[in-house]
Amino acid sequence: MSRFYIIFIFLFLSTASFGQELKKYLEFAQEKFQEGDYVYALQYYEKAMKIDSNTIDILWEYAETLRAYKDYPKAAFYYGKVYGREGAELYPSSLLQYGLMLKQTGEYDKALELFKLGKKKYRNDRRGYLYQKSRAEIQSCIWAKSNQGDSLDYIFEALPDHINTPNAEFGHRIHKNQLIFSSLRADSISTSEEVYDPSYRTHLYSSVIKEGQFETENRIDELAYENVHTGNGTFSLDGNRFYFSYCKDDGYNYKCKILVAYVDGEKFVDIDTLGSIINVENSNTTMPFIGEWDGSEVLFFVSDQEGGRGGMDLWYSFIKDGNQFQRPINIRTLNSIDNELSPFWDGKTKTLYFSSSWHDGFGGYDVFKSHYNTSFGDPENMMEPINSPANDLYYFETSSNDSAFFSSNRLGSNYSKNPTCCSDIYSIRKPLIDFPPTIEETLEDLNRRLPVTLYFHNDVPNPRSTDTVSNVNYIDSYNDYIAMMDEYKKKYSVGLKGEKSDDAKDDIEDFFLEYVKQGVNDLNQFISLLITELERGRKIELTVKGFASPLAKNDYNVNLTKRRIASMVNYLSTFDNGVFKKYLNNTSENGGELRIVQIPFGEDEANKIVSDNPNDKKNSVYSRAAASERKIEIQSVDLRKDL
Length: 643
Fold this sequence. Notes:
By secondary structure, this protein is of the alpha+beta class. The protein contains 15 helices and 26 strands.
């Protein structure tokens, strides 16, 4: 037998052997992924990738498992590899997931560019999830960039390590000086997070709080079931009933329903399932919270039952006589096509707290609040340090409202292998003595938010005028401008077809979203801090520069930019029922003053490549380049030293 033939046979057998081994690793990894055991799944995907690290399917499955395991940097890297190879053709969501994982590492600039690319990639299905989510995440990243670093002045700390293990903990309530929480624990876990206990399930625990310290926790054994997860505990208003989630594994997800137990001293007895009006058949229903609403008892919960907006939605149902539930109501103004989770209702202030992966936020899930006044108001982000680029959920406050708790898998949480694998419980409270910032700290904070840039339509306000003042309120000018977005898209894309036309329209839409709308958001955040300092008697000077496109002559544009600055001053004068007026006209009793220094520019400062041809309105008026020149900027904040 020739040497060549022997080598060929050897290579053939080796390849077949590797192929069988690869198949075995992949089958086992996929099985563990479906079971939700991501640590084992990753180990076998890594073994598989030592044999074959180029096959796109393996890279995709590895990225998906890393995402499920919440290893955001690695998941981003491998989604990036997948997208770079297949361009979202084989795996359409690869581009979106790439961006989402970068966002959850706090890389907002990179994520923003990917979401903008995703909006173009998915625009053939504008009603589809991938397009809608990409659009929402563009706005969310812009918001996160603008609000990053605005940490509330709270005392923030993790609960002790005997509560927060290297596994997952979720806080639920403080009841009779006890913390009721859930934890995913096993009796024997190796340093590589391998689980050896077959009863590795989420169970409910309690820890007595004594003199501000959390004592050793105890599992609530009456509510612990074999091969079933329990959690999300909440007591009825009279303390006689305890509602909780009862969840079975459903692939790598859960299938839950809400149970109720009656309280007998220190024990939970007579456990029963809530009826089908709450636990709708074939639906996932979980995360109960009992609250008081205008003297009535109410159950808030989340469910994917029919009648919702998509994913897990927020619902509520009023309770009569402790066991009669009215028809549940979907909170449509807060729900989205993504998930809304972990409701907490403050009946005193009529405020609902919840977590969502859709509304403008810093990461995956952020905590939001919504005030109820005839209807639920727009969700408000709870800001840092409550929220982070990771997942932040299960927010609740103590009955005295002096402290709050939430769960997060942010960097700094307890872990054994992956820094963001698992949630810990954190507490947050206001300091006993709240020292106001120094003027140096104030100026640094205000200037950190600059420049604040506001944009205008062509020759607005007061078209064809040589006046240097205006009675137009900027917010009216802004609303008119936003209403013209479709007109801009139409006129800037005229003469273009197909993809080029769509690109031009997207370019205009991105400009209005990323710059025009964000300018107003930045202004409102800036002046909310500014008024605080004026109310302390500060004398503050703002330097505002005005710019114009080169369509008109220089002298005309100088006057136009003065009118634009005047419109912003008019907005300040009417803001919040005229709160700034006394500081602008030097009549405040506390001595606080606000002076606006105007620096108007004509066409000299305009970009020279922008068209100044009045017969080419497509480029001289409706192009993004021209629109970018029509603006004013608050460029600096100073303490007035001449007074």
